[in-house]
């Protein structure tokens, strides 16, 4: 397990002193609270209890909430599309459409596709039927995100969301001169985030390295191309054409709204996964993990962003990334109340609870992106053929002599 220093997430001595001496199943670093097998089981039981209690409480309020959000999202979209007919209102049109796309992708789409509202029996809010306003097909997203990422969260070599196959975001990722472009790649990924997400399953980095062939992607292409065509026609042909001579303004407005949504989603997601203090794990230490171990890994591999109620709604409540990773299929509107319990449990077990305001988490992520652009050893910046052998080093030349 690796972790970067974070004063808000450094674990303290446990408040529940225990005499258990069983060796911890999760080794952890010095600055992490190490839990014994018994503690992990007890921790898991407390998390399960929260989950079962909230499931038992789900009802009309939750149904009313998500339908209210859907109604608001549609209202913003209609307002945005309509305002494009009034050139002076172009900024308002872009703002309304941006809010619509953010709500659709984050508070509605992401959460509905996690199955958070399947219990309603509403086809429009069913994870198997819902698709979002995004070039990434819903079915593809549910595999790469719901299954791969949420099952193997922050396990190096298993969770491809660590750097998205493009960035170096952890010291255990071997450095290569390619990563000198880390800040540039991050900027491009932010601007074209929905496209990066759509291409994620193609595993381009594994094709380049020879671990995957183009043939392996054949099953992905049809669905991906259908979704790309549909989104492109909707935003860049159909709706601009409906405004007649205002086509260029509407085209630009739709592109701007997509850009704003991309930037917002990128920043919220990165602040929930990559600030200082977020841990990564090896495949070996996660073998045969218990339920409690799984919860522990989800907790240490996530971070929260503090803010007000409106802020949380606009993030899809992914500002409560810790709670989302602990309970991905519980309605996200429940995360704020759950967070209070999770924080209290973490305090009792002496486990760090990583949270901070958006600015703090963003700065932390930016520093990490820049830091991991560079090698861990300065000597790695020098090509191997230019490096001066250390004294006493046996080289091929000396052996030949």
From TrEMBL:
The lineage of its organism: Bacteria, Bacillati, Actinomycetota, Actinomycetes, Propionibacteriales. It comes from the Bacteria. Pfam families: FA_desaturase. One of its GO terms (cellular component) is membrane. GO terms for molecular function: oxidoreductase activity, acting on paired donors, with oxidation of a pair of donors resulting in the reduction of molecular oxygen to two molecules of water. Residues 8-21 have a biased composition (Low complexity). Residues 89-355 form the Fatty acid desaturase domain. This is Fatty acid desaturase. Signal peptide: none annotated. One of its GO terms (biological process) is lipid metabolic process. CDD domains: Delta6-FADS-like. Residues 1-21 are annotated as: Disordered.
